[in-house]
Amino acid sequence: MKRALISVFHKEGIVEFASELKKLGWEIISTGGTYKILKESGIEVIEVNNVTNFPEILDGRVKTLNPYIHGGLLYIRDNENHIKTIEDMKIDPIDMVVNNLYPFEETINKLNVTHEEIIENIDIGGPSMIRAAAKNYKDVTVIIDPSDYEQVLNELKFEGKTTFRTRQYLARKVFNYTAYYDTLISNYFNEIEEVIFPEKLTLAYKSKEELRYGENPHQKAAFYKEVGKKEGTLAGAIQLHGKELSFNNINDANGCIEALKEFDEPTVVAVKHANPCGIGSGKDILEAYKKAYECDKVSIFGGIIAANREIDEKVAEKINQIFIEIVMAPSFTEKALEILTQKKNIRIMQIDSIIDRKYKELDIKKVLGGLLVQDKDRILLNEEIKIVTKNQPTEKQMEDLLFAWKAAKSVKSNGVVIAKDKATIGIGLGEVNRVWAVQNAIERAGEKVKGAVLASDGFFPFKDSIELLSSAGVAAIIQPGGSLKDSEVIEEADKNSISMIITGIRHFKH
């Protein structure tokens, strides 16, 4: 007679599955709550301590950690020495394990959960049991996912046993699951010990969706979400309209959200190819949108928009005048949705708490043969910024300088931003030469450049950029400083009555 050990925390479909096993002539062993629910459902079941000849102890911490369990799982069915050992020790085979572990992930995500509760939800017996069954998948079937019950039952009904391919597939799922489970535990201990960069780095992500393709059509891709807090992120977004997101959509939309999080007042960020093509802040979202749009009316076409306030009818009407791939906001009025959904393919994403910055996350970049890992660039300014020129910025210029500095933080390096009236008017980005970035920003700003301010994500290595900015009519500059030529740069600014602030902190973004 075939024997199955069933002990599950998530009991979805387990009574029906066990009932079908019994009809097929299987003997069922069970523990704790699973034993109780099967017994109450009229299913004949053997309690595990009748197999182990040992009671559950330590409040259930020890119940399946026993040679009568693991010997029955691990012995190789065609190994004569193994067969003789289990016969001599009167160990019965166990041919199937159904188990899905204590809910550690759900526990750590609960509000006001205690450390003691978290520790008690670290499963010991379950992982040992399913790993043992998975190791011996040549002969043992192991199920951790209720969605696999039907496939297993169908094979048992029509083939009399599960296929080798199915057992291997199920074993693969086990090792993937236990690795994920243990990673959650190790990450929890890293967090309480305040270890940012452990000696062994493990990452825990769950599949959110497979994507049609990657950055290019010949590349395969998927989107994985991180465990825990999702508010204010694309992983926690609710899609209200439009076709599924692509790899590039997600990458660009994430850059848009990260840029938006720098601003507290009503702000709209427009992004194209992961770079801002317009950022505007105003008294309301309509004014902010107009400013973002005016920065680059060409590049915003086919771009992505994020707003940090509700989008209403007036803003929706403006957006609908051009082609936009994605619109993101914390909410949309009913009339705004009615207008925006007139276009079939526009993606409308509701992102609750879109300006929320209270999440711990590492910045990770894959390189050949390894990973680069750093904490996020969360610091905007040092405690003291220095006005290093004789000319002092006006209060209005100071507001625009800080706005431009926030905008420059989200631009790919080398990058500069020219701004006026809390709106970007010219962006120079991703250049290998800072002068080229300055030239491009000036050209894109056009006549609006006169009296505007500029922010640079890195220092000016020479005074040539200041000469260009002076000729264009830029009135004030904010930059990190730190160049060997700082004194010459400052002298050139003084010579042309340009105010300059040095922050002492740079914001490279590659």
Structure explained in plain terms:
By secondary structure, the chain is an alpha/beta fold. It folds into three domains: 3-193, Methylglyoxal synthase-like domain (Rossmann fold, 3-Layer(aba) Sandwich), CATH 3.40.50.1380; 206-350, Cytidine Deaminase, domain 2 (3-Layer(aba) Sandwich); 386-502, Cytidine Deaminase, domain 2 (3-Layer(aba) Sandwich), CATH 3.40.140. The chain is 36% helix and 19% strand. Strands 8-13-12-11-9-10 form a six-stranded mixed beta sheet. A six-stranded mixed beta sheet has the order 16-21-20-19-17-18, sandwiched between helices. Strands 3-2-1-4-5 form a five-stranded parallel beta sheet, sandwiched between helices. Helix 13 packs parallel to helix 14 (334-340). It starts with a strand and ends in an 8-residue tail after the last strand. The relative contact order is 0.06. The model has no long low-confidence stretch (mean pLDDT 93). It catalyses: IMP + H2O = 5-formamido-1-(5-phospho-D-ribosyl)imidazole-4-carboxamide; (6R)-10-formyltetrahydrofolate + 5-amino-1-(5-phospho-beta-D-ribosyl)imidazole-4-carboxamide = 5-formamido-1-(5-phospho-D-ribosyl)imidazole-4-carboxamide + (6S)-5,6,7,8-tetrahydrofolate. This is Bifunctional purine biosynthesis protein PurH. It holds the Pfam family MGS.
